[in-house]
Amino acid sequence: MTFIDYYKILGIDKTATTKDVKNAYRKLARKFHPDLNPDDKDAKKNFQQINEANEVLSDPEKRKKYDQYGNDWQHADEFEKQKQYREQSSGSRGARSSGSEYGEDFSDFFESMFGGFSGGRQGRQMKYRGEDYKAEIRLELIDAYKTHQQTITVNGKNIRITIPAGIENGQTIKISGHGSPGVNGGPNGDLYITFSVANHSIFKRLGDHLYATIDLDLYTAVLGGEMILDTLDGQVKLKVKSETQNGSKVKLKGKGFPVYKRDDQFGDLFITWSIKIPTNLTEKQKELFTQLSKS
Predict the structure, then answer these.
(1) Any idea what the Cα angle at residue 238 is, between residues 236 and 244, rounded to 5°?
(2) For a Cys-Cys bond, which of 36, 60, 265, 271 suits 259, CB 3.0-4.6 Å?
């Protein structure tokens, strides 16, 4: 298995703090977001690697295992149990070899452990961890806006999962123990679910913020007024300043997308006004505009 350097992916060193990991992840997630790189065929792959690196390095326990075992960090518990078993077996025979019994490469160890090795000198059967499963769930943007449950079928088995609000397009989460069953009483594998969040016809999502271009009639733009705006969380009444210019922007604080696994925290909604010039004017209306232009 090719070694994947999570530190290199996030552009940090091994002394990085949890805050450093978080900041690096947020910066790269925005840079390589598939929605921002529609012509880059590797954008989705890069984004998945960034999410995977963040999932491991932001968790102190996972990070500790990764630092010690590298790519094989997910099998660290099995390795430690097997190591203890070998030490106990060696101790019961009253001697140890002069060489390092555990000096073999981790990859060689796992190849023997999961590639068919069975039975010790006492005829015990080796326990094998089950294989991991991978699945994909497609969501509309409005579905990713609120925490909800879905039932998916994996290998003929229905699994009910809770999808947290704020899930990212391309993000992968792990459901422990829902992979292939273990052999000889070994632990089950895990289920890795990657989410594909579709674009919205009005709102564009970048991280926790939402962006939309909204039509504004000329008269309201000139004179000011109020308008009702539909958001993902219902309607809001928005005041329009007089003499609003085409392309000007308004920020609605806290009306953006929910922050992943941060209750009651939301990004902002940015509105860009697109002023529409009236068409099919009557002669009287044209006359009034003429008078206005001369005033």
Answers:
(1) 155
(2) 265
